[in-house]
Structure to design on (591 residues):
């Protein structure tokens, strides 16, 4: 599949502060998440993709073009920035109409277009007469999303779009983004709310300290780390006995028994070897296992591993 | 119809496929959009209230300072006090500072508030964006300052200052050149540095008060000098300020060239320099 974004040895510095450090990756069409803690370089990367910043070195191409100072390319990119900053004194329809005119939406179509976008992001019509400064965080996010969609972009870039939304709002936002993706719009989302990206995005780019630690499909990333030490929580009737048995078999890198709930937390050396021996070891120990939970297969644990 | 006749397919209304949106970004639509944002943003209760207070402050000062006193024994000294307030204080101090403050903040305030990204990611040339922002803000300022000047002259009329009509016209004409040039200068300073007010004051001391008074051709760099030349076409002001009558075309040309130069430099700066909240916060 052709990449829509290609970064080659991309770096960005703010004076002596590093924003991005020699990163290379490809992003394919569809829903893609950028994951990383604060200061990881997510916003810097998004700013370069949307043509607000230039790379210090290396190259980034979006739809095969350099974004900086490229209005022709910006016709194909919609942007929804992080934070709550909006022009507080304006009403949503006025703001959107102004931005639509700047984007080149024909004047006779702006009003209908802006109303359609506000409906699309489900901003209640009774709220349209209020100024943006009077809006809740969630309503501002909706208006920000609407302005990003005004000119029918092929790529929508959202910086922390779930911030400030309640669970219902997050679900609606996720639904709206999936709907866009189903209509052929590629969506790039940065977030630290991993659970949403996990269910939403096919592909993930993991950033930390300005470097890409992992990128690709979630399955690929998981496959890459299948031999990382695995963490399991085991609920059983004799945790000490099971721990001793597993330790003597030499499959554990470490273990811990939670005195409160009696859960046995283990770290295994080689997951593949461990799972081959697990049933036999459990039978030999004579312990009754009630539940086993992997702590290492969620996106959160992947993220924690690669950023640790 | 027989029993074994084929059942016709249901009639499904064919919805026409939505035509792709055709974008026609150009300078004029961008100007229209930015103007809409400018006047809508300013026409708020808070914004209009602050403007109203600011608009009445100076006329009130003119009215109070024009109260009959011992040293205002004749109409000449009354008009001198009034016109010094209007020309020296309002036209050559308040007006430039208002323009520099307003247009210097044009990009800086959006940068600080982190709303500039909404504008920069529009499919429009950066140079066009900064020019339309400048034009919109200057148009708004011209309307406000027109109201300010009219109110000032109303205060003068209330105090019985002579020759108001002739001075009003020349002042409004000069203001039509002064607001664009000071605004363009403010825009340029605002794009250069976030300390644009001190920078503008330094410029005022060095160029307007320093170089402008050097009796060689270098003093054409002073915009204030050209504005004085325009105002000197009025007999009342000429007599009062001891100015000499000068041709108007050279000062007008100089002011227009100065405005165009400042705007062009601003457009170039905005095109090639990064203006980003993150980069700004790292400074």
């Amino acid at each position: 599949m052709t990449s829509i974004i290609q970064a080659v040895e991309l770096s960005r510095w703010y004076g002596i502060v590093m924003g991005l450090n020699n990163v290379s990756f490809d992003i394919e069409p569809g829903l893609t998440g950028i994951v990383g803690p604060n200061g990881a370089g997510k916003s810097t990367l998004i700013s370069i993709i949307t043509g607000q910043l230039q790379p210090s070195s290396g190259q980034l191409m979006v739809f095969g073009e350099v974004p900086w100072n490229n209005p022709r390319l910006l016709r194909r990119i919609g942007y929804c920035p992080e934070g709550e900053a909006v022009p507080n004194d304006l009403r949503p329809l006025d703001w959107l109409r102004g931005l639509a005119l700047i984007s080149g939406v024909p004047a006779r179509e702006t009003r209908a277009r802006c109303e359609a976008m506000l409906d699309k992001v489900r901003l209640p019509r009774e709220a349209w007469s209020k100024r943006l400064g009077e809006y809740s965080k969630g309503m501002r996010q909706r208006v920000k999303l609407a302005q990003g969609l005004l000119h029918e972009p092929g790529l929508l870039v959202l910086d922390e779009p779930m911030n400030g939304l309640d669970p219902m709002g997050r679900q609606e936002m996720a639904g709206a983004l999936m709907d866009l993706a189903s209509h052929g719009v590629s969506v790039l989302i940065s977030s630290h709310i991993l659970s949403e990206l996990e269910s939403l995005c096919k592909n993930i780019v993991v950033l930390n300290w300005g470097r890409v630690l992992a990128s690709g499909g979630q399955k690929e990333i998981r496959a890459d780390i299948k031999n990382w030490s695995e963490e399991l929580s085991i609920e059983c009737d004799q945790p000490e006995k099971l721990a001793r048995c597993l330790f003597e078999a030499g499959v554990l890198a470490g273990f811990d028994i939670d005195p409160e709930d009696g859960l046995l937390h283990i770290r295994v050396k080689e997951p593949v070897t461990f799972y081959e021996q697990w049933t036999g070891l459990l039978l030999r120990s004579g312990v009754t296992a009630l539940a086993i939970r992997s702590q290492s297969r969620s996106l959160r644990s992947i993220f924690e591993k690669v950023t640790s | 119809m027989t029993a074994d006749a084929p059942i016709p397919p249901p009639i499904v209304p064919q919805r026409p496929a939505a035509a792709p949106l055709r974008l026609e970004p150009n300078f004029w639509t961008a100007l229209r959009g930015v103007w809409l944002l400018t006047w809508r943003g300013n026409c708020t209760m808070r914004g209009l209230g602050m403007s109203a207070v600011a608009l009445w402050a100076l006329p009130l000062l003119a009215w109070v300072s024009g109260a009959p006193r011992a040293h205002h024994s004749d109409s000449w000294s009354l008009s001198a006090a009034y016109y010094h307030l209007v020309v020296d204080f309002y036209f050559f101090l308040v007006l430039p500072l208002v323009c520099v403050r307003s247009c210097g903040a044009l990009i800086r305030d959006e940068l600080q508030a982190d709303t500039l990204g909404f504008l920069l990611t529009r499919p429009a040339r950066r140079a066009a964006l900064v020019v339309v922002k400048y034009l919109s803000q200057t148009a708004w300022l011209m309307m406000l300052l027109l109201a300010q000047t009219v109110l000032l002259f109303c205060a003068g009329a209330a105090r019985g200052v002579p020759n108001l009509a002739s001075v009003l016209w020349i002042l409004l004409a000069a203001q039509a050149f002064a607001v664009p040039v000071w605004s363009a200068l403010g825009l340029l300073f605002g794009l250069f540095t976030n300390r644009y007010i001190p920078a503008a004051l330094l410029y005022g001391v060095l160029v307007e008060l320093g170089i402008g008074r050097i009796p060689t051709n270098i003093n054409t760099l002073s915009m204030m000098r050209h504005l004085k030349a325009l105002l000197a076409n009025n007999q009342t002001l000429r007599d009062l300020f001891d100015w000499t009558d000068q041709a108007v075309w050279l000062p007008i040309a100089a002011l227009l060239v100065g405005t165009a130069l400042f705007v062009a430099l601003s457009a170039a700066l905005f095109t090639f320099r990064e203006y980003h909240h993150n980069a700004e916060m790292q400074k």
